[in-house]
Amino acid sequence: MSSVSAPSSSSAPTSLRNAVIRFAGNSQDGIQSIGGFLARLAGRTAQEVMTYMTIPSTISGGPSIFQVHLGSGEVLHEGDEADVLVAFYKHSYQNHIGSLRKGGICFYDTADMTAEDLNHDRGIIHIGVPFTSATVEAVGGSTRDRGKNMFVLGMVCAVFNLDKEKLVGIVSRQFGRKDESVLRNALLAFDAGFAYQVGDVEKFSFVPGEAPGSHRISADGNQMMTLGLIAAGVRYGSAYPITPWSSIMETLRVELPKYGGIYVQAEDELAAVAMTIGAAFAGHLAITGSAGPGLSLKMEALGYASMAEIPLIVVNVQRGGPSTGLPTSVEQSDLMQAIYGSHGDSPRIVLAPKDVEDCFYIALEAGKLAKKYSCPVIILSDQALSSRIEAFEEPDLDKHWVEPELDLATRPADFKPYPLDAITRHAPPGAKMAGGKYPIATGLEHDEMGHPSGSPKMHTLMTAKRRNKLVQLSKELPLPEIHGDTTGDALVVGWGSTFGPIKESVTRMRSEGHKVGAIHLRHLHPMPAGLGDLFKQYKHVVCVEMNDSGLYGYGQLATLLRASLADPRIQSVCKTDGLAFRIREIVTGVEKIMTQA
Amino acid sequence: MSTAIDTPAAPATEKLTKKALTADHPTWCPGCGDFAVLNIFYRVLEKLQYPHENIVCVAGIGCSSRFPYFMNTHGIHFIHGRALPLATGISLSRPDVHVFVFGGDGDGFSIGGNHLNHAARKNIKLTYVIMDNFVYGLTKKQTSPTSPIGFKSKTDPTGSIDRPINPMRQLLASGATFIARTHAAQVKHMEAMFERAILHDGFSVVECLSECVMFYSGAFDDSTPRKGGTYELIDETQHDVTDETAAFKMAENLAPGKFGVYYQVNRPTKNALEQKWIDETQSKLGGVSQKEILKKRFEAMR
C-alpha cells in the first residue's frame, strides 16, 4: 500500500496494487477464519494472495496472528511490514505495532485500550473502534467475544472496497453447513462492521488483477500436497499425528475411501513407515509422512527401503528443531537428515516444493520418480507452506491424473528381483512366476535373486547399483530456470518455501542497480548435473536458507554444494528465528557478501 | 478388501506341493526346533492348497525370522521388530493374498512389543507364528523377554532378574482374536494349531515353543514327555475358548502350562471394517469416476 498514507477527506477511494493486513488477537478469536475468507476472496477476484499465520503450540488460547498480503500483481512473500494492523487486545497492539510500517493504519478495540496506550512515534494513524460492544449490539444477547471477527471482516471489506457480494457468498457457504442461527449472527456482525463509520480514514480500492479469474482456487500447502498425492495415484499409506503434518493424514484418511483406498493411523512413526512399505511391497504407490522428529524415527525403515529398493513417498513438513524444538515455526533444517539420515549408504531422492501450488506438482513428480527408480522419495515441505493460503490456477486433471495400477502380470522365467544391469522392478504378491521361483525382498545384502550374500564383490556391485540410479537421474534433470541476470555479481540459490522471498529480493536488488540472478533447487538429491558451470557466471554464489550456519559458517545446502562442487565462492545467508525470510533480510545478507573482496 | 480368505481355496492350476514350496536349505543349527515348524507349515499349506502366488511370508530379524528365505513363496525379510506393521500394510491393501508372519520372542515381545498390541486390537487379518525359545540366539545368548528368572546369559551372567513376559496373558490383553500355544516337538498338535489359526478370520497368533539347542538347551524339558515332562492339552469340552477370564486364569502358570487354543472369538477385522467404510462412502458418490471426484473437490475450492 505504497501510494498514500495520510488521511484524506476525499470520498473517492485511493487505488492500490497491494496491501498487507495483519490481524492480531488470541487463537480463539477466529482471526484465522477471516484471514481465510479474505484469501479465498482474493482467489476469486483475480488478486494474488499470500497469507501467514502463527498459532501457539499450546492446546487453546494464546496470542495468534493472521497476515494477508493481497495484490493485483505477483505476490511472492507474506510482506515484510503490515500496512494495516487490526489489534484485538492491548497485548496484540504492544506486540505487533512494530510490524506496522511508518504511517500505517491501526484499528484497535476500544474495549481493551484507551488513548493513553497508543504510541504515536512513527506517524501511525490510530482508529479506535468498539469491536466488542458494536458486535454485541448488532447480534444481541450475551455473545461477547463471539462474532467480533465478523464485525472486523465487514469493516475491512468497507475500508478496502472489497467485493461484498462475493465475500458474503464465501462466508455463507462456510457457515451454511452449521446451525442457521450461526450464519445469521455472523452476517449481522458482518453488516454492522460494514456499516460502521470509521471516521476520517482513507478508503482504498485494488486495481483489477491481471490473473485470469475463471478457474482460480485458493488453498494451503498441505491441502495441495494431499490432492497431488491422490492425483499421483496414491491409495494407501499410514502415518502418526504430528504438527504440522497432521492435516495431510487427516485429509487422506477421509478422502482415500472415496477412491477405494485406506489411510491408516499407526501406533507410532516406525509402524507408519513399515505399513507404508508393506503397501508398497504389495504393489501400490504408498505414502507416509511426518515432521522432523517423526522422520528421525522412520530412518531405519527408510534405509531398508533403499536397500530392498521399495518405491514409496515420504512427506516431511519441516518445523523448528532439533528435538521437539519449535513445533509451530518454520525451519529448513532437515535437509541433511532427509539425504543422509540412515545408517550405511542408503541413497534416496529428495525434492522440495517452492510454493503452495507446487505442492501439488511435486507430489505428482515424487510418484513418478519413486516408481521409475524404485526407491524412497522424500518431499521436504515446511510449516510456512503447510498453512499459508495462496491463490492460483486450478490444476488440469485431464493432463495430470495418474490412474493407479497393480501389476500382477506373470513374470518371465528369467525374472531377477535385483538385476545388476537394470533398475529393480518388484513382482508383488499375486504375480505368478513363470520360472516357479518366487522372489524375496530383503534388507540383507543380496545377490540378483535376493539371496543373502556377504560377498565383498557383491556388496560393492549392489551399492553401486543403488547409487547409480540417482546418478542417472541427476543427468536427466533440467537445470533450474534463472530469474534475473544470467551473469553478474551474485547468484542467489534457494530451495523450498524461500522461493518467493528470494525472487522478490532479486527483483528489488536489480531495481537498485545490482546485477544478480536467482535459481531455486527443486531437486536436492540428486541435484541436476551442470550447476558448477552455471555458478561460474557469477562473482558470488549465495545460498539463502532457514537453518544454522553451522561450525564452519555454511548452511546445509551450501555445505552440500561446496562438498560436491569444491567451489570456495559459495557462501551462506542463514537464519534460525523460526520465521520466514523478509525481503530486507535477504537483500542485506546478499549485499554484505557482494561487498566482500 | 473382502474377507475372502476364509472361503475355500480357489482351485490352483498346479497342485501345491512341499517340493514347490521349498526354497533354500535352512541355515539353522542342527537340532533347532524351527526345522519342525517349517516342515509342518509346508504340510498345512499342502493341505489348504491356496494359489501359490497368493501366499506371502513376512519376517523381522532373528533366527526364526529367516523363515521367508526357506519358503518358495512371495516373501519379505524386514527390519527388527516391525514385521507386524509391515504385514498390516500388505493385508489391508491386498485382500486377495494370505499373509503369514514369522518371528521370535525378541521380535514379538521386546523390540516389536507395541506393534503386537496394535495389530491385535485392530484385528488385522493375518497369521502370526512366534517361535519362542526364551533366548536371543542369533546374537549368541542374551536374556530375552521370555527368559525365566535365574536364566544365565551373557547379559545376566548371574541369572536373569527381570520378570518374564507371559505370552498368553500378553496376547489376551492385546485383543488378539485367536490365541494358541504349541510345541515344536509335538508336530501333530502344531499342525492342528496352525490350521485352525490360518482358517480364523482375524488376527491369529500361535506361540510355538521351539528349543534353541545352542544357547538354551533343555529350556522346554518340563513340557517334553520323553525328557520327563508333561504335555497337557487344553480340553475344549471343559474350557470355553470364548471365555477371556477363563483363558487368563488358565495362563496363570506357563511352566509348563497347557497347550492348545486359549482363546478364540469372532470380531470384525479392520480389513472388513475399512471395506465397509469404503463401500458406504463410494455408494454415496453414485459411481462417478475417480478423476471426477477430484475435479469436484477442486471446483469447491474456487
From TrEMBL, chain A:
<feature type="domain" description="Pyruvate flavodoxin/ferredoxin oxidoreductase pyrimidine binding">
    <location>
        <begin position="228"/>
        <end position="454"/>
    </location>
</feature>
<feature type="domain" description="Pyruvate/ketoisovalerate oxidoreductase catalytic">
    <location>
        <begin position="29"/>
        <end position="194"/>
    </location>
</feature>
<dbReference type="InterPro" id="IPR009014">
    <property type="entry name" value="Transketo_C/PFOR_II"/>
</dbReference>
<dbReference type="InterPro" id="IPR033412">
    <property type="entry name" value="PFOR_II"/>
</dbReference>
<dbReference type="InterPro" id="IPR029061">
    <property type="entry name" value="THDP-binding"/>
</dbReference>
<dbReference type="Pfam" id="PF01558">
    <property type="entry name" value="POR"/>
</dbReference>
<dbReference type="InterPro" id="IPR002869">
    <property type="entry name" value="Pyrv_flavodox_OxRed_cen"/>
</dbReference>
<feature type="domain" description="Pyruvate:ferredoxin oxidoreductase core">
    <location>
        <begin position="489"/>
        <end position="585"/>
    </location>
</feature>
<dbReference type="InterPro" id="IPR022367">
    <property type="entry name" value="2-oxoacid/accept_OxRdtase_asu"/>
</dbReference>
<dbReference type="Pfam" id="PF17147">
    <property type="entry name" value="PFOR_II"/>
</dbReference>
<dbReference type="InterPro" id="IPR050722">
    <property type="entry name" value="Pyruvate:ferred/Flavod_OxRd"/>
</dbReference>
<dbReference type="GO" id="GO:0006979">
    <property type="term" value="P:response to oxidative stress"/>
</dbReference>
<protein>
    <submittedName>
        <fullName>2-oxoglutarate ferredoxin oxidoreductase subunit alpha</fullName>
        <ecNumber>1.2.7.11</ecNumber>
        <ecNumber>1.2.7.3</ecNumber>
    </submittedName>
</protein>
<dbReference type="InterPro" id="IPR019752">
    <property type="entry name" value="Pyrv/ketoisovalerate_OxRed_cat"/>
</dbReference>
<dbReference type="InterPro" id="IPR002880">
    <property type="entry name" value="Pyrv_Fd/Flavodoxin_OxRdtase_N"/>
</dbReference>
<dbReference type="GO" id="GO:0047553">
    <property type="term" value="F:2-oxoglutarate synthase activity"/>
</dbReference>
<keyword id="KW-0560">Oxidoreductase</keyword>
<dbReference type="Pfam" id="PF01855">
    <property type="entry name" value="POR_N"/>
</dbReference>
TrEMBL record, chain B:
<dbReference type="InterPro" id="IPR051457">
    <property type="entry name" value="2-oxoacid:Fd_oxidoreductase"/>
</dbReference>
<dbReference type="GO" id="GO:0047553">
    <property type="term" value="F:2-oxoglutarate synthase activity"/>
</dbReference>
<protein>
    <submittedName>
        <fullName>2-oxoglutarate ferredoxin oxidoreductase subunit beta</fullName>
        <ecNumber>1.2.7.11</ecNumber>
        <ecNumber>1.2.7.3</ecNumber>
    </submittedName>
</protein>
<feature type="domain" description="Thiamine pyrophosphate enzyme TPP-binding">
    <location>
        <begin position="61"/>
        <end position="208"/>
    </location>
</feature>
<dbReference type="InterPro" id="IPR011766">
    <property type="entry name" value="TPP_enzyme_TPP-bd"/>
</dbReference>
<dbReference type="GO" id="GO:0045333">
    <property type="term" value="P:cellular respiration"/>
</dbReference>
<keyword id="KW-0560">Oxidoreductase</keyword>
<dbReference type="InterPro" id="IPR029061">
    <property type="entry name" value="THDP-binding"/>
</dbReference>
<dbReference type="GO" id="GO:0030976">
    <property type="term" value="F:thiamine pyrophosphate binding"/>
</dbReference>
<dbReference type="GO" id="GO:0044281">
    <property type="term" value="P:small molecule metabolic process"/>
</dbReference>
<dbReference type="Pfam" id="PF02775">
    <property type="entry name" value="TPP_enzyme_C"/>
</dbReference>
